[in-house]
Amino acid sequence: MKTIISLKNVEKYFNSLHALKNITFDVNEGEFVSIIGPSGCGKTTLLKIIGGLTNFSKGSVTIESGSVESALQGRKFGFVFQKPVLLPWRNVLENIQLPLEILDRRNASEIPSKLLKIVGLEKFENFYPNELSGGMQQRVSIARALSFGPSILLMDEPFGSLDEITRDRLNLELLRIWREESSTISSITFVTHSVPESVFMSDKVIVLSARPVAVQQIVDIDLLRPRTSEIKYSKKYLELVQCIRKILK
Amino acid sequence: MYKKNIKIKLKRTLTPVFVSLGVLVIWEFIVSITNYPEYLLPRPIVIFSALIANFNSLLYHTGITLFEAMVGFVIANILAFFIAVIFTHSKTIEAGFHPFVIALQTTPIIAMAPLLVLWFGSDIGSKIAAAALVSFFPTIVNGVKGLETIDEEALDLFKSFSATRRQIFAKLRLPNSLPFFFQALKTSAALSVIGAIVGEFVGANRGIGYIILTSTYHMETVKMFTAIIMSAVAGMLFFGIVSIIEKKIVFWQKF
To answer: In DSSP terms, which residues pair with A188 in a beta bridge?
Structure first.
């Protein structure tokens, strides 16, 4: 199994504040890895370090055995933030096209409409963000993250501000999109503060502790794929949820 | 629902109309029973008929003032836009010139107007300069704010695409700043009319400011009132035009 993301003894200081302490873990090819921990514990910072948006103080981060910078330059990262961060002056289609314009791949015009279909918004391509619900906006932001064919998807509590019903639906959709034939995504790193969500989605859950943030335990989720809602009634699922809750206590 | 909306809208437009009509009626009534001298406070009906009688001449002078205001406004705002862009690109330049901008802004336009006449002549040049000078500052201040007030996550998004500085500017900073710019443009539209009139006060032979000034010399209070009304109309008209353009361009903003 190829290692996609590898963190070794990563440390981060904000001035005198020890924000991240000795973080070590891998994300392998084909893996869905969740990072969970108390709020304000630096999960976002950790994700930004992986994606090259923030620097770290000590340790090493390698992406597909190269540096973070070269992965960033090679446009390997697709980011989905907690807020959809759509540009309000662009309609849905234009928002999805944004990365393609920046990469000067304007000729790839069939991609956005294909992605709209995948995220189930084909009828909304001319709508503006303020005309869409929160769930729809987040779908657009996922489609945008996928549009330029990155191999590593980094998601920062993408469904954190949505209601539970929408969140459950989007969880299933994300797994389906990931498994699509045309999908370029080899691994997903997913920050969340929902224990059930982390168990349902992941192959591996990295449980962080608060101040200084360190890896408390890495829990393997050996539930079968493809995951369906029925899994949530299984004994194993409930045990895993309980197990992580106990670690977090 | 739809009917109710129309009712509310009608109420909103009609209420101020009725209030103003009421004020005018009371004004008319008080002036006629107290026999107040016309050169101090003319009756609304007299002002209104003078407005109708001299409408063509008033329109000509208002047009001159509005032209000066608009030319000054356009020059100032194009300049202010580029300076705002330069300021956001270089903190050093901004720090160096900021006190200068503030000092110019706090200097009253009336104090500068005679100098402008000296420099740009007593024709429309000095009025355009006065209009430009007052309409310059809102745009520069708001422009810098608009170009720099960027959502941290949006910036991260662009960085995650490895976007260049130029791309971030063209696709994020610039469109993001438009609501701020238009906010400033509305203010400077109204200010530019004031600037032009102040310029005319110092020395002119046409324009609404000239009419106001000469009617004072001749104690033509009625004429002065008609000119004041026209200057208000000019300011509102310009403000209205900018507001309409704003709604078209900054369509995503809720008003």
So the answer is: A32, A153
What residue in A sits closest to B154 (Cα-Cα)? Answer: A85
Res. A109: pLDDT tops 80:
no
Q: Is residue B13 part of a domain?
A: no
Count up the domains in chain B and report the number: 1
Contact B156 A79 (CB under 8 A): yes
Q: Given the structure tokens 């929408």, which residue do they identify?
A: A166
Full residue range of the structural domain in which residue B196 is found:
54-247
Q: B161 CB near a chain A CB, below 8 Å? A: yes
pLDDT in tens, A139-166: 999 999 999 999 999 999 999 988 999 8
**Nearest one of A220, A190, A221, A191 to A41, comparing CA atoms:** A191
Question: A81–B252: do the CB atoms touch at under 8 Å?
Answer: no
Return the CATH number at B236: 1.10.3720.10
Interface membership of A51 toward B (CB under 8 Å): yes
- Domains of chain A, earliest start first: 3-76+152-248 (3.40.50.300), 86-149 (no CATH)
Read off the pLDDT of residues B161-190 as tens digits, 9 standing for 90 and up: 999 999 999 999 999 999 999 999 999 999
| Alpha-carbon gap: B30 to the closest alpha carbon of chain A (Å) | 53
| A7 CB-side CA count, 13 A | 25
Q: Please report the ipTM that was assigned to this predicted complex.
A: 0.91
